[in-house]
Amino acid sequence: MANAIRGKKVNNGFIIRPASRPRVGGRNLVLIEKRNLHLLYRFAWYRSKARYSFEWMIRQLAHEFYLSEYTVGKIIQNDAEELIAIRNEKPNQKTLQRKYPFFNWG
């Protein structure tokens, strides 16, 4: 009987662990803002083409930025003011190519 209780304590020690310390660090907010701005410029570019459906643009951006479609939609929704500013700016292909040379703007 004593062995059974002792074995139970040993097994519970492996299964139930004390809470670990919270993770130090996290996501770099500056890099997230830069990524979101790139994404918004790309969305505005696709939208200016007018031949793409909204669903296709969301899927394409999710693929290009390695995000879920839900996250892309939330970024666009949360940064609507920035998107309006980009539309008012009306960047052309050369400007976008200089600003973000790693994308194909053709």
Characterization of the model:
The chain is mostly helical and 106 residues long. It has a domain at 27-99. The protein has six helices and no strands. It has helices at 2-15, 29-49, 54-65, 69-78, 80-89, 93-99. Helix 2 (29-49) packs antiparallel against helix 3, helix 2 (29-49) packs across helix 5 and helix 3 packs across helix 4 (69-78). The protein starts with a helix and ends in a 7-residue tail after the last helix. The mean pLDDT is 84.
List its traits.
106 residues; mainly alpha; 6 helices; 0% strand; globular
SS class:
mainly alpha
Q: What is the general shape?
A: globular
The largest sheet is:
none
User: What fraction, in percent, of the residue positions are helical?
Assistant: 55-70%
- Rg from Cα: 24 Å
Arithmetic mean pLDDT: 84
Q: What's the N-to-C terminus distance?
A: 77 Å
- The stretches of 5 or more residues where confidence is low (pLDDT under 50) are none
Order of helices and strands: HHHHHH
The percentage of residues in β strands lies in under 5%
**Total number of beta strands:** 0
**Helical region count?**
6
